[in-house]
Amino acid sequence: MALPKLAPAPAAQDKLRALGILALNGMFDEMDAVGVLRYAATEVLPGDLAIVSSFGADSAVLLHMVSQVDPSLPVYFLETGKHFAETLDYVETLKQHLGLTNVVAIHPASSDIARFDPQGDLWETDPDSCCFIRKTEPLEPVTEMFGGWVTGRKRYQTKERGVLPHFELTSDDRIKVNPLAYFSDADVIEYRQQHNLPEHPLYARGYRSIGCAPCTSIVSEGEDPRAGRWRGLNKKECGIHYDFNGAIAKPMTAVRHTLWKDGAFIADPFKAWEEGTDPSTARYVHVPLQVFLADRDAFLANPHPLGLLVTPGEKVEDVENDLGRFASIAIRFPAFTDGRGYSTARLLAERYRYSGEVRAIGDVLQDQIPLMRRCGINAFVVEHEPTRRALIENRLPEVALFYQPVGLTEVPAGTRPFLRRAH
């Protein structure tokens, strides 16, 4: 008897829905990949299922199955801007060979690249952040359009994938389908040969698992097929995948963006400063002002993007000549009642004409934000949930009456504009 289609889940995971996933996993033989895919596309999530493909070494197998089930199924390819030229050619080869009619390339936001990776070398020092802005972030809004999506993951690839089922109920209440979960490397090769599928041009040269060019290397005889991915790093996943118990990575939609800038919560490239960080190699951290002063020459010689952290009691005047070095200046507000950060922000904006990002961190609440903006703060790290909702819903209070003007254009209450003294 056919299992009924799973209805959309409420916000929290539903026990009956979870039981339905268990039943789905009991319906198919381990090697019935085409059956899994067909049932997912026609019974479980008809019209609500997408495929994500890397067009790598093994991709032809899953995409051939897609062509057998429905060649019009949407297939999304993450065009990170870092792929081998051979991979881009392979995309066109498979589209034509398999008759796929709905292959869509997803690109990272040009603004994110310009801001976070302007030189294109972020992969060298922070591959996790590189993957985030080039893969995870662009893919997230796409997956939100579908009730489920199909991957080419397999149990043999990593220890974390060793318990991978055909169907997963993710913590963001979507269904992830893994038709090839039980396929071995030999099964993939046999299927490819049996159906005379085009081989990735780099496969014969020793590339057994193919991702972005900078982070992919040749695999030697006897090595694990994925040994060439992020070689030498403690990294196994790009971040877009996670198994049913969350062991591989957090669900994409569970990533909680806390940086509010330009009208939205966005990915924050900056990480917290850690004691002992080498000044010559630090990157995308807000360096505490006193730490910067103690090792100023090394920080100034560092070619990577840096921020500055100013806490109450510290004088931004002490780094007046170096402000242009920083891509972002974070001003700490330790408590709602501590207003010293406003003075720092006004100094940056009015005296020093600092044009970079000025962000407020710490106890940032909705009543403060309009006042912070008046002083030149243009980004806010917000943890307070009511404030987050107020920002999203554009419900911040207005500052219509004030007694201390900011800049040259504001007129304080109770004064006559024509009597204001020019600065």
Automatic annotation (TrEMBL):
Keywords: Cytoplasm, Iron, Iron-sulfur, Metal-binding, Oxidoreductase. It catalyses: [thioredoxin]-disulfide + sulfite + AMP + 2 H(+) = adenosine 5'-phosphosulfate + [thioredoxin]-dithiol. Pathway: Sulfur metabolism; hydrogen sulfide biosynthesis; sulfite from sulfate. The active site is at C238 (nucleophile). Its cofactor is [4Fe-4S] cluster. The keyword Iron applies. [4Fe-4S] cluster binds at C130, C131, C212, C215. It is found in: Cytoplasm. Pfam families: DUF934, PAPS_reduct. Its EC number is 1.8.4.10. It comes from the Bacteria. Belongs to the PAPS reductase family. CysH subfamily. Catalyzes the formation of sulfite from adenosine 5'-phosphosulfate (APS) using thioredoxin as an electron donor. This is Adenosine 5'-phosphosulfate reductase. It comes from Devosia albogilva.
